[in-house]
Design goal:
Strands 12, 13, 14, 15, 16, 17, 18 and 19 form an eight-stranded mixed sheet that branches. Strands 1-4-5-6-7-9-11 form a seven-stranded mixed sheet, with helices on both faces. It has a two-stranded antiparallel ribbon with strand order 2-3. It folds into two domains: 35-55 and 73-249, 2-enoyl-CoA Hydratase, Chain A, domain 1; 273-427 and 484-504, 2-enoyl-CoA Hydratase, Chain A, domain 1. Helix 4 (113-120) packs parallel to helix 6 (150-159). The model has no long low-confidence stretch (mean pLDDT 91). The chain contains 21 helices and 19 strands. By secondary structure, it is an alpha/beta fold. Strand 2 (58-63) and strand 3 (66-72) form a beta hairpin. The chain starts with a helix and ends in a 13-residue tail after the last helix.
């Protein structure tokens, strides 16, 4: 006697799984311009690589031994390959009750995706299209429950210090899934079709008494430009999947493995002539820092993170001679490149990312200092600056700084680390100090200036005297600071990235300081 009947039941249940929330729910999903969960998985993963687990989970009704009705759970999970690399994938199915969580497992339950990622030491990718908890679950279980979701969230927090975690916001995401969107090293949302909030418009109406649309409450313009809760914006879902694939390509599968080198065919000794005049002599003239970055990293390798938020800093991942690195630079076209609270927050996340996954960090510095003014004070620039100092000093990955222009104050101090493998070079266009000569002279020489017959002439005289001390060559004479031809920068960075690998090999494993989102 064979088990043909039972095997047929497997096939029947798999067919029901792939039916998701039914034809009506699928039609609604497509009408909103969104892919279904299984279409997303097919688009994101390498062909034929998805291996589902927990697929029979759901709600069933029986007539004796025969199942007569079945609703799958609101998510699809499995192992797959993305860009040729194994990952654990969990994806919300909005066609099933808006992707909301049900009563969940219990005794004898199989491992959920986050625990599998931890045990298998593989990256975790979340495709979020879920409304979080639903009051309908109270009817199902016949009671309410005390919020104790940290039973599962504790695993998500621990994961951040062990394997890469990526979240994509692909619909209206609320409740715990909204927090999971940010419990990640990188997240992305789709333009004009996605929203993120702890509670949607009905919750806002009940709590605060006003009406607001989902888009105005938590649309992409809020989170990629104002709140900073989401790193990148994708033009469509396929673009989001491409960004996920590219982000993961720079990182190892876990903190116990070396970052992956990729052959790019770009000569590490390539010297870009444009770098010789990249920094204008006129300090009031700006320049395009992206051009400088692209001149020193492997061609086409820059993957910018959070370009719409904290725009005083440009940062992301790149390759130099094939080695993955984190890279950041001041952007003089936004707030003069001064580090404000938003830019500082962005920098701290990149430093943690590189430290956690053992990527060298490259800084191209033109730092005027922390952002001053009333608005900066209201945002708490001092506490933000203290946090940036702390994160900087706690890192241990190899770090190289190239001072292209200004390097002033405590913000300039945060582009230096006093321990571990650290190297600093300067261009002849560099200048530095505790503060700018113009503002500093007015403060330090206030009495002499105010008591002079011609205060303005006295101020100019003092500033001219101080500028004579500002040559980087004077610093080099006293400290041994290396000053290089800007065209040598790529070669210097390539040598550093190569030398950094032997140090990185001694640092594999979890860092002493856990990653914080």
């Amino acid at each position: 006697m064979s088990w043909e009947k039972e095997v047929a039941e497997i096939a029947r249940r798999r067919k029901l799984q792939h039916g998701m929330g039914g034809a009506e729910g699928i039609a609604r999903q497509h009408k909103r311009g969104k892919l279904t969960v299984r279409e997303r998985i097919e688009r994101l993963t390498d062909e034929g690589s998805f291996r589902e687990f927990g697929g029979f989970s759901g709600s069933a009704t029986y007539d004796g031994e025969r199942m007569i009705d079945y609703t799958p759970k609101g998510s699809v999970e499995g192992m797959c390959d993305i860009g040729g690399r194994s990952v654990v994938l969990t994806a919300g199915d909005f066609t099933v009750r808006g992707g909301s969580g049900g009563s969940g497992g219990g005794l004898g339950s199989e491992l959920p995706p986050n625990q599998r990622a931890m045990e298998w030491k593989l990256p975790l990718v979340r495709l979020l299209d879920a409304a979080g908890g639903s009051v309908r679950s109270f009817e199902e279980i016949g009671r309410t429950y005390l919020p104790d979701g940290n039973v599962w969230t504790a695993v998500d927090v621990a994961l951040l210090s062990q394997v890469p975690v990526v979240s994509a916001v692909l619909g209206s995401v609320a409740g715990l899934p909204a927090i999971n969107a940010c419990l990640a090293h990188f997240n992305v949302m789709v333009k004009d079709k996605t929203q993120l909030f702890p509670g949607g418009p009905p919750v806002v109406k009940a709590s605060l008494g006003y009406d607001i649309s989902k888009e105005d409450l938590g649309g992409d313009h809020i989170h990629t430009r104002i709140s900073g809760s989401v790193d990148n914006l994708a033009a469509d879902e396929d673009d989001a999947f491409d960004q996920i694939t590219k982000f993961l390509s720079y990182l190892p599968a876990n903190v116990w493995e070396m970052p992956p080198r990729m052959e790019t065919g770009d000569d590490p000794n390539r010297a870009d002539e444009s770098l010789l005049s990249a920094i204008p002599r006129n300090p009031r003239q700006t320049y395009k820092v992206h051009r400088i970055i692209e001149s020193v990293v492997d061609q086409g390798s820059l993957f910018e993170i959070a370009p719409g938020y904290g725009k005083a800093r440009v940062l992301g991942l790149a390759r130099i001679d094939g080695y993955p690195v984190g890279i950041m630079a001041n952007n003089p076209r936004y707030k003069g490149g001064s580090t404000d609270v938003a830019a500082g927050s962005k920098v701290m996340r990149l430093l943690q990312l590189c430290d956690t996954f053992h990527l060298p960090i490259v800084t191209l510095a033109d730092e005027p200092g922390f952002m001053v003014g009333l608005e900066s004070e209201k945002q708490g620039i001092e506490r933000a600056g203290a946090a940036l100092c702390a994160v900087t000093c706690q890192t241990r990955m190899p770090w190289i700084t190239v001072v292209m222009g200004k390097l002033y104050g405590v913000a300039g101090q945060c582009q230096h680390r006093p321990s571990g493998m650290f190297r600093r070079y300067a261009w002849p266009s560099a200048n530095w100090g505790s503060m700018h000569i113009a503002g500093g002279a007015s403060a330090a020489y206030r009495r002499e200036i105010e008591s002079a017959p011609d205060p303005e002439a006295k101020r100019e005289e003092i500033e001219s005297m101080l500028r004579a001390f500002a040559s980087p060559f004077r610093t080099a004479e006293a400290t041994g600071q290396d000053i290089i031809d800007p065209r040598e920068t790529r070669r210097v960075l390539a040598d550093f990235a190569k030398d950094a690998q032997r140090v990185i090999a001694t640092q594999l494993g979890m860092t002493a300081v856990p990653y914080r989102p």
